[in-house]
Write a structure and sequence with these properties.
By secondary structure, the chain is an alpha+beta fold. Helices cover 24% and strands 32% of the residues.
């Protein structure tokens, strides 16, 4: 196991495009960190730089006590699990898992022991070890790919969107297995995904990337409860946070939306921002229904989605018909165009500067 350090790491391609802009991240020994963001944000490029598959233009990458900028991938003591499994189709499962050890001339008895141990951890049967990859399901192939990484006993695991080719049910199952595996082995792990639910459930900490820059680094709860920017607020959380342009009133007691809708603010929390134009953020699960409130806060329903444990209500409110989604517990039935009074606790409100899009307060 080893710590990983990214020190002012940047990547510029020969055509002048800068994919990564001066990233600083320290990953602790044994930590599971997730690089998350939309397509094109630079997360896979950063992963490939750690692996040695992309060169570093500026800055340095260290694994353990060694700077690895100029080391080949094979010399970095890392093991990578790919999106497409990257298994050899002509080899059986045992030989796929053992291949990396064989080319390193590890003793046959040691290879047998490591493969058997990895197979036991991943619940791969003796029969499955004799099969070719084409005879396995997608989930079993992914287990083989992880087994091939485990037998190397690396200092760092790198996971490049390993679950994106699996169906929804299997993705959830494999997500749990990866989390349990990392807890059992305690190996430093870097995981790339565009799926924020995957990121929230797997990572000790998340690195949210946007256009090659770190928007925020923190625990899943930190990012959920105190997103540092409009981008993070909109990316983390499902369904996404509701947003609306608004203005903090003269004494900072409320935030007012166009059309006469007002939400109370925590006392004194935004006293430095009186009369400032802002973007109001409210998570769907933080909105509640309350009878007898000001009619300006009435949500007019447009669509109701029943998810079993939850009900999503989509609608609009106020004279400007601001879009809003509410997440309610349980199965609840509403009619289209039904008026529902909205309520939110003041401390659940998020405010962002309308120009910089950075968090206020």
């Amino acid at each position: 196991m080893a710590k990983v350090r990214l020190n002012n790491v940047a990547k510029t391609y020969p055509n002048g495009f800068k994919a990564i802009h001066g990233i600083d991240v320290d990953i602790a020994d044994g930590e599971f960190i997730v690089l998350v963001g939309p397509s094109g944000c630079g997360k896979s490029t950063l992963m490939r730089m750690i692996a040695g598959l992309e060169s570093v233009t500026e800055g340095s990458i260290s694994i353990g006590e060694r700077e690895v900028n100029n080391l080949e991938p094979a010399d970095r003591d890392i093991a990578m699990v790919f999106q497409n499994y990257a298994l050899y189709p002509h080899m059986n499962v045992f030989d796929n898992m053992a291949y990396g050890l064989k080319i390193r001339r590890v003793a046959a008895t040691e290879i047998q022991n490591r493969v058997n141990k990895a197979a036991e951890i991943l619940e791969l049967t003796a029969d499955q070890l004799t099969r070719k990859p084409r005879e396995l399901s997608g989930g079993q192939r992914q287990r083989v790919a992880m087994g091939r990484a485990i037998v190397r006993e690396p200092s760092v695991f790198l996971f490049d969107e390993p679950l994106s080719n699996l169906d929804a049910k299997l993705r959830v199952q494999m997500r749990i297995e990866i989390k349990l595996l990392q807890q059992q082995l305690g190996t430093t792990s870097v995981y790339v995904t565009h799926d924020q639910v995957e990121a929230m459930t797997l990572g000790h900490r998340l690195v949210v990337l946007n256009q090659g820059r770190v928007e925020q680094l923190g625990t899943p709860i930190e990012l959920y409860e105190r997103p540092s920017s409009l981008f993070v607020a909109g990316f983390i959380g499902s369904p996404a946070m509701n947003f609306a342009p608004a203005t903090i009133n003269a004494d900072a007691s409320s935030v007012d939306l166009d059309g006469g809708v007002a939400f109370e603010l925590p006392e004194g929390a935004f006293s430095d921002y009186c009369n400032q134009q802002v973007i109001l953020g409210i998570r769907p699960e933080d909105l509640a229904l309350a009878g007898g409130e000001d009619s300006s806060r009435m949500l007019v329903t447009r669509l109701v989605e029943h998810l079993g444990a939850d009900t999503l209500v989509h609608g609009h409110f106020g004279q400007n018909q601001t879009d809003m989604t509410i997440r309610l517990a349980g199965i609840q039935d509403f009619q289209i165009d039904q008026a529902l009074a909205l309520h939110i606790e003041p401390d659940k409100i998020h405010l962002f500067d309308s120009h910089t899009e950075q968090r206020l307060g």
